[in-house]
TrEMBL record:
Segments forming domain YbaK/aminoacyl-tRNA synthetase-associated: 46-162
A Pfam family it matches: tRNA_edit
Recorded GO MF terms: aminoacyl-tRNA deacylase activity
Protein name: Cys-tRNA(Pro) deacylase, prolyl-tRNA editing enzyme YbaK/EbsC
Coiled coil ranges: none
Classification via SUPFAM superfamilies: YbaK/ProRS associated domain
The species this protein was found in: Actinacidiphila paucisporea
Length: 176
């Protein structure tokens, strides 16, 4: 199989690669998702696009875990924005979560809450009760490259599919 974006030697339907995915991701992948096997040492965005195709920069999206706080209550959520932008944590995220304060979640909270590897967290297979905030630019991208839940490998899927994931809400102004 040939991936619709990038230059990957090893691309298969994600449903055929469940053995390479963390359990929550393996349980959630669908037939429209493609898994590309990649070198974990080249997982950071700049090195990744240099290795697997410069065109990937405009197709790459990041998934970050945030914590919204109001008093003693903490709400964990995931945010997906294109790699060339950053998440408006103190504006769009804080308002959407109804939090007094919002910040990036600690590595322990992100890894422990998702069951995924830090640096590979993906919106696919998140806990069912987490809000998933998605920037409209991601949804409008024909093919999006995201983490696979592990540092090894990535998922490629239609941007519009992200809006259909459990808990997904498209938020204007999420990516700035």
């Amino acid at each position: 199989m040939r991936a619709p974006i990038g230059h990957f030697d090893d691309a298969l339907p994600a449903t055929e690669r469940r053995d390479l995915l963390p359990p929550p991701v393996a349980a959630a992948v669908t037939a429209e998702m493609i898994h590309v096997d990649t070198d974990p040492a080249k997982a950071d965005t700049a090195v990744f696009v240099e290795t697997y195709g410069e065109d990937l920069m405009r197709h790459s999206a990041n998934c970050v875990v945030v914590a919204g706080r109001r008093g003693q209550d903490v709400t964990l959520a995931a945010c997906v924005v294109l790699s060339a932008t950053r998440v408006d944590v103190n504006g769009a995220v804080r308002r959407h979560l109804g939090a007094r304060k919002a910040s990036f979640a600690s590595m322990d909270a992100a890894v422990g809450g998702t069951g995924m590897e830090y640096g590979g967290i993906t919106p696919v297979g998140l806990p069912a009760d987490w809000p998933l905030l998605v920037d409209p630019a991601v949804v409008d991208t024909p093919w999006v490259l995201i983490g696979s839940g592990a540092r090894r490998g990535k998922l490629i899927l239609p941007g519009k599919a992200l809006a259909g994931l459990p808990g997904a809400v498209v938020i204007e102004g999420l990516g700035i």
